[in-house]
Amino acid sequence: MINELDRVVLASELPEHGLQVGDIGTVVLVHDQGKGYEVEFVSLDGETVAVVSLLANQVRTIRRREVPHARLLAAP
Question: Which pTM does this prediction carry?
Fold first, then answer.
């Protein structure tokens, strides 16, 4: 189960927030025993990009030996 403060990987595109599959966020709240999550996505310089309510199938845990990837966000 995913818990508060766990890092998770976005599993579905969220273009309305400028987020792509593979973006990494931090769970700030677990809804209904893991049926959904409030996830904060932050840029590498510490700016909050979005805080989004997501269903469990829209995020996944980080897998062993995965490497993060940096990308530039599109202008709002």
Answer: 0.93
